[in-house]
Amino acid sequence: MAAPKMLKLPEVLEEIGMSRAAFYRMRARGKAPRLVKLPNGHLRGRRSDLDDWLNRLDSPTY
């Protein structure tokens, strides 16, 4: 089984169009996509987790 595609934090931020500060505020509220902390302390986002998070946001606004 292939390892899941892991995105660096700047790649995640670019894809969702959000600043690092705004992302961390959202993360503190538990509303950001799930990230994985690597043993070296770096954060990565799984492609599948980001896609799931984006799909959950896909609700109509009126």
Account of the protein in words:
With 62 residues, this protein is an alpha+beta fold. 45% of the residues lie in helices and 15% in strands. It is built from 3 helices and 3 strands. A 3-stranded antiparallel sheet has the order 1-3-2. A hairpin with a 5-residue loop joins strand 2 and strand 3. The protein is globular, with a radius of gyration of 12 Å. The mean pLDDT is 90.
- Basic shape: globular
How many β-strand stretches?
A: 3
The end-to-end span amounts to 42 Å
Mean model confidence by pLDDT: 90
Q: Give me the secondary-structure category.
A: alpha+beta
* Number of helical segments with 4 or more residues: 3
The SSE string, one letter per element, is: EHHEEH
- Detail the poorly predicted runs: none
For the largest beta sheet, what order do the strands appear in spatially? 1-3-2
Largest sheet: 3 strands, antiparallel
How much of the sequence lies in strands comes to: 5-15%
Q: From the alpha carbons, calculate the radius of gyration and give it in angstroms.
A: 12 Å
* Percentage of residues in helical conformation: 40-55%
